[in-house]
Amino acid sequence: VAVTLEETRDARKDLVSQARGAQERLQELELDDVLAAEEKSLQRTAAEVGTAATAVSESVRKAQAALESASALNKRAKAEYARFQEAMEQRMATLQTQEELLAKAVEEQKAVDADVQTLVEMTAAQSERLQLTKMSVSNFSQNTRDISRDYEEGSAVSNMIGGAIGVFGSLVKAGAEAMEKEAQKGKTKALTAGKDKDE
After folding, report:
1. Which of 169, 132, 163 is nearest to 148 (CA)?
2. Which domain holds residue 62?
3. Which of 10, 20, 157, 161 sits a CA distance of 20 to 30 A from 2?
4. Which residues of 22-38 are buried (b: 16+ CB within 10 A; e: fewer)?
5. 112 with 193: CB under 8 angstroms?
6. Does residue 116 have a pLDDT over 50?
């Protein structure tokens, strides 16, 4: 019986030892599963972080490219605006010069028009005086002819009358020629002023 009890105790110890070993092995297996699951989770998280980092990097790259493009556009716009402003200033200066030249030309044209008007009035007055002179010559000639009829041709009185007619006619002719030359000068001056203005 003692041997049987001893054997029973030994068997019990073996069973307990085996149970403990099985339990330890089970715990180790469970820990391995947990670690494996955690490792997989960490791997998934690392993959997700890598994907997010890649997306962020791509976004940063695109943002940097957009910034560089916007900066280049801004510089080009500033340069174009500066060129446009310079061109507009030059255009405004040209228009200002043209305006001043046109204003000067208008004033000169007014002066020329005034001179022409004066010459026209002078020419009209000279023409009127010439007509009056012609009428005076005609009346004088008619009167002298009427007077000379009372005297014989070749007589002293007739010759004196003829000489007077000749002298008067010469004076009238000289005066008429002088007035005609003066009118021609005025006309030439007006035409020259008009041509100079046009040029």
Report:
1. 163
2. 2-198
3. 20
4. eeeeeeeeeeeeeeeee
5. yes
6. yes
Length of the chain: 199
pLDDT digits 0-9 by tens, 27-71: 666 666 666 676 777 777 777 777 877 887 788 888 888 999 999
147: Cβ contacts below 8 Å, ≥ 6 apart: 161
Q: What is the pTM of this model?
A: 0.37
pLDDT at 72: 92
C-alpha distances in angstroms, 167 versus 88, 136, 149, 197? 75, 14, 20, 45
Q: Name the domain count of the chain.
A: 1
Give Rg (Cα) of the chain.
66
Higher pLDDT, 18 or 148: 18
The H-assigned helical ranges of the chain are 2-148, 156-198
Residues 6+ apart with CB under 8 A from 151: 157, 158, 161
* pLDDT at position 1: 45
Residue 180 CB contacts under 8 Å (≥ 6 apart), including other chains: 130
